[in-house]
């Protein structure tokens, strides 16, 4: 299995531009998570999906952030418009069904907003 | 308010000695506890876990200890090796909820 796949690995954009981050979870996993890592706040959960349905988006910082999961093998996290304070590493993770299953993380997307 | 605290941002240990990483949590409802390891430019990877019905779990050089009354979790690595140098995240969960992470501790193992 290729693991969780994220693209792009690096994104540099200018303030005000739209940014779309992509994630392909591990095949067969039914939960998908988006996290953001910053020096100040560590790893924060932004949103998670069960069976493609958003369950909790209370971690999404503002309306500028949105996430979709149109099918079991693809999710996007969009920031529009982007701001310099959105600069961070964004991780996608997936997990299979079962009480004590661990979350598997992708390699992350490093976003820099100038 | 942080639910999971790793109070040591960094730790340096000599090769061959024991590394002890600590984690405190606030909610007694958490029932599953994990440690993840993260190298630069990679995502966190699962290392070891323990459920609330146990107080110790061992896997090779890695042992996790859980003290429920103190709401305290620790990871022992013995003997420490240079390849163990990474950021270690403590993570907790209640039931099937998402993991809540601490801010991490950067471990440096010096040869």
Walk me through the structure.
The complex is a heterodimer of chains A (114) and B (111). By secondary structure, chain A is mainly β. Chain A contains no helices and eleven strands. Chain A is globular and about 40 Å long. Chain B is mainly β and 111 residues long. Chain B has strands spanning 4-5, 10-14, 19-25, 32-38, 45-51, 56-59, 62-67, 72-77, 86-93, 100-101, 105-110. In chain B, the strands form two sheets. In chain B, strands 2, 4, 5, 9, 10 and 11 form a six-stranded mixed sheet that branches. A five-stranded antiparallel sheet of chain B has the order 1-3-8-7-6, with no helix packed on it. In chain B, a hairpin with a 6-residue loop joins strand 9 (86-93) and strand 10. Chain B is globular, with a radius of gyration of 13 Å. The model of chain B has no long low-confidence stretch (mean pLDDT 95). Chains A and B meet through strand 4, strand 5 and strand 10 of A and strand 4, strand 5 and strand 10 of B.
Which key features would you list for this structure?
heterodimer; A: 114 residues; mainly beta; seven-stranded mixed beta sheet; four-stranded antiparallel beta sheet; globular; B: 111 residues; six-stranded mixed beta sheet; five-stranded antiparallel beta sheet; 11 strands
The CA-CA distance between the termini of chain A, in Å, is 36 Å
Overall 3D shape of chain A = globular
Average residue pLDDT of chain B: 95
Along the chain, the helix and strand elements of chain A come as EEEEEEEEEEE
The portion of residues assigned to helices of chain B is under 10%
Task: Please tally the helical runs of chain B, counting DSSP H or I stretches of 4 or more residues.
Answer: 0
Number of distinct helices of chain A: 0
Q: Distance between the terminal alpha carbons of chain B, to the nearest Å?
A: 38 Å
Subunit arrangement of the protein: heterodimer
Report the order of strands and helices of chain B.
EEEEEEEEEEE
Range of strand content of chain A: over 45%
Structural class of chain B: mainly beta
The strand count of chain B comes to 11
The radius of gyration of chain B is 13 Å
């Amino acid at each position: 299995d290729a693991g969780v796949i994220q693209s792009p690995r690096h994104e540099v954009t200018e303030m005000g531009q739209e940014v779309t981050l992509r994630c392909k979870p591990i095949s067969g996993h039914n939960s998908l998570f988006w996290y953001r890592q910053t020096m100040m706040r560590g790893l924060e959960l932004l949103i998670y999906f069960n069976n493609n349905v958003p369950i909790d988006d209370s971690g999404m910082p503002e309306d500028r952030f949105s996430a979709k999961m149109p099918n079991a093998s693809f999710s996007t996290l969009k920031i529009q418009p982007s701001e310099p304070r959105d600069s961070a590493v964004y991780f996608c993770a997936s997990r299979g069904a079962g009480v004590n299953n661990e979350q598997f993380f992708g390699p992350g997307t490093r976003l820099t907003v100038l | 308010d942080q639910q999971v605290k790793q109070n040591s941002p960094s730790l340096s240990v000599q090769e061959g000695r024991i590394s002890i990483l600590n984690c405190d949590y606030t909610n007694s409802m958490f029932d599953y506890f994990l440690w993840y390891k993260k190298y630069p430019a990679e995502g966190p990877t699962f290392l070891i876990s323990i459920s609330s019905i146990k107080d110790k779990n061992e896997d090779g050089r890695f042992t996790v200890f859980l003290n429920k009354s103190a709401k305290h979790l620790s990871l022992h690595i013995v003997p420490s090796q240079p390849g163990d140098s990474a950021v270690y995240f403590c993570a907790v969960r209640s039931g099937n909820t998402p993991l809540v992470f601490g801010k991490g501790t950067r471990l440096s193992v010096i040869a």
